[in-house]
DNA sequence: TAATGTGAAGTTTTTCACAGCG
DNA sequence: CGCTGTGAAAAACTTCACATTA
């Protein structure tokens, strides 16, 4: 599995571009939908439309995985689902702990798509002793004291932080010390982690601020266009269309 | 406010790189924290560390805004807070509607950082008639029927979708038809919108899948390193360190 | 013939490294 | 002297366009 080279025609020498990795889940979702409708094959054009990207990009992305298509025909849906799942590591089960069971933590715990796609909520953890034992989404909440034990016992390597900002770094440190090497952070803080630990963040206020920036610009352009203040060439220059974040931006959400 | 040119030394001709825009909220957060501690100035080095980026990038980012620093000294915290806020359009108030008041919608409504930073929850909207009138975060939930009226009356241009995936596109269409031009989408679906409408998405399962990819790779490298299977030069190649998403990736979350 | 797979070109973003200013 | 501001180089990513092949 870590070899490379040897079988398929040639392609890939390890090292899928990060931008491509970030799009694979998108393709996978579109493909899963097609699969459920029993669609046997898709062209890059169709699949790209469903995933909200352009077809050249999609083909390039897939080319990093290998030659999984058939010229003149398209891609076999089932086969691609499998290949992408494997590439993303979804053929194995990832136990995940969620720390901070407030509004957001509960929402995450209740999220169905969790279990379905290779992830399993191993534990819900909260610092409030009053919450201990209370079931959320059918899983009893455990106290923070148990954190290390849970992580080690279940071999958890992915942690989700949904605590208030003030507690996030501390929780993060404990998670990492206990063996977690990937963290999804919903707290509005920059986390410091040692090399080798991956952090992704989701931050509502950041996303809103990015939207506000563009919103403001739209208003400005309108005004400018009406009054003829800004040089048209510049005023007219707008991003291709309605992108869905993945451009080269940041994520965003927030705990209670 | 939409003019440009005229005052500061010279710099900037409109068109801040998208990657830079996406980082401004990060800088702003770090600066706000410094401001609260009454720190008068910061160097690019310090601020970069607080924001989790490298200093060259930060300086380059700021250079698109203008020359707001003092050589040999650093940046004036208050002044920068103001400039970035203005640039992001946070000096005005953005009314926002949240559609879909389930677990996640409620979590979002309760998020404090909302009001503080230029955003105001104008309304909470849900399709369940049983929820109508029920207060969430002190705001009474209104029925979907009211959607168009609310948006027009309050001049809402930013909408947050926290509905199940199945309802998202329909809600989106109504929002856009009513005048919303920026959407933050928490539903796991690609939204189709007309040109001129911005969409950003936040998707838990996508984020987890990206983490799983890297997690799997780590495991693979360990194994490979132990056995000496993969050429070290390749196996060792790892991303600089622990990034916080903003690399050039995608976001992620999920509704109930 | 239709659609993939991909070199090559183009664009954006990051990093380097240092001149220049307070 | 220290730190900003920025050209220039490098890297990453996207798009083009077409040869290739089922």
Number of strands of chain A: 10
Q: Per DSSP, what share of the residues of chain A sits in E-state strands of 2 or more residues?
A: 15-25%
State the secondary-structure class of chain A.
Answer: alpha/beta
Using the alpha-carbon principal axes, give the shape of chain A: globular
Number of domains of chain A: 3
User: Alpha-carbon distance between the termini of chain A?
Assistant: 42 Å
Q: What is the CA-based Rg of chain A, rounded?
A: 22 Å
Q: What is the CATH architecture term of the largest domain in chain A? A: 3-Layer(aba) Sandwich
Query: What is the N-to-C order of secondary-structure elements of chain A (H for helix, E for strand)?
Result: HEHHEEHEHHEEEHEHEEHH
List the helices and strands and how they pair.
The structure is a homodimer of 256-residue chains.
Chain A lengths: L17 H19 L4 E2 L1 H8 L3 H11 L3 E2 L3 E3 H12 L5 E6 L3 H8 L2 H4 L2 E8 L8 E2 L2 E5 L3 H8 L3 E4 L3 H14 L3 E4 L12 E4 L2 H24 L4 H4 L21
Helix pairs in contact in A: 1-2, 1-4, 2-3, 7-8
Chain A binds a DNA duplex (22 and 22 nucleotides) through helix 1, helix 3 and strand 2.
